[in-house]
Design goal:
The structure is a single chain. The protein contains eight helices and 14 strands. The chain has one domain: Ribonuclease Z/Hydroxyacylglutathione hydrolase-like (Metallo-beta-lactamase, Chain A, 4-Layer Sandwich). The termini are close together. The protein has helices at residues 22-25, 55-61, 77-80, 87-93, 103-112, 177-180, 205-214, 232-239; strands at residues 2-7, 37-42, 45-49, 69-71, 97-102, 128-133, 138-140, 144-153, 156-163, 166-169, 188-192, 219-223, 244-246, 252-254. Helices cover 21% and strands 29% of the residues.
Length: 256
């Protein structure tokens, strides 16, 4: 399995509009962060996790000419706003885009992108095939099993995903002990870590590191990072244990 971090920033991205801080002013490419999303390539499938407002840019940057499905973690706009851009894949692949999301997320998508779900929608509107995520493991296109992991994002539900030995969790501030049990056996993880200080709806750095240690994750990458985390090289050098890396846009790694 190959994983690409398409975006590792928080909802405002980095640089944040109008911000003069050292991170936003940095010329280090690793300090430039699009909205959080990932790409999974496994079993001859190419799957996106979320498609936020930077989706088109991310697909072009990584030359993703074919996309088999999209998994949605939740319905916040920094994770869904690029859905309209699947039209290009509809054009070239000549079929609806399979979308995997909870019933609640589907209902929100039907409001935000109502024109894609109308009975007599206009030609060229996004063509979407909805698949419902519930509490049970599910299979993408009858080829790839995925275990949903339900986490809490402030007061909003979010779904993380475990695929084989890989677990992806973003926008989490709390995970019940029952859901944490699903993480057992993970060899590589992507986990959100917003900043150093506490936040009401995201893990901060110390909370993320505590969970990674508790779950005994051999290799972890941090995502959904704000400009308040600090400069990439300083965080890597001063705050992270050997098995944890600060994610950055374009980072690729493989999972056995």
């Amino acid at each position: 399995m190959r994983v690409t971090l398409l975006g590792t920033g928080t909802s405002g991205g980095i640089p944040l509009i109008g911000c003069p801080c050292a991170v936003c002013a940095s010329d280090n490419p690793k300090d430039k962060r699009l909205r959080t999303a990932a790409l999974i390539e496994v079993n001859n499938l190419t799957i996106a996790i979320d498609c936020g407002p930077d989706f088109r840019q991310q697909m072009l940057a990584h030359n993703v000419r074919h996309l088999d499905a999209i998994l949605f973690t939740h319905a916040h706009r920094d994770h869904t706003a690029g859905l309209d851009d699947i039209r290009a894949y509809n054009l070239w692949q000549k079929k609806p885009m399979p979308i995997y999301a909870t019933h609640e997320v589907q209902q929100i998508l039907k409001v935000q992108f109502n024109y894609a779900f109308e009975e007599n929608k206009y030609e060229g509107a996004p063509n979407i095939a909805l698949h419902t995520i519930d509490q049970q493991p599910f299979t993408i296109l009858n080829q790839l099993q995925v275990t949903p992991i339900y986490v809490v994002h402030g007061n909003a539900p979010v779904v993380g995903f475990k695929i084989g030995n890989f677990t992806y969790i973003t926008d989490a501030s709390y995970i019940t002990p029952q859901e944490q049990q699903k993480i057992t056996g993970t060899k590589t993880m992507v986990l959100n870590a917003l900043r150093h200080t506490q936040h009401w709806s995201h893990f901060n750095l110390s909370q993320a590191l505590q969970h990674i240690q508790q779950w005994q994750i051999p290799q972890a990458y941090l995502t959904h990072i704000s400009h308040q985390m600090g400069l990439h090289h300083e965080v890597e050098a001063n705050h992270l244990p050997p098995n944890v890396r600060l994610g950055y846009d374009g980072l690729q790694f493989t999972v056995d």
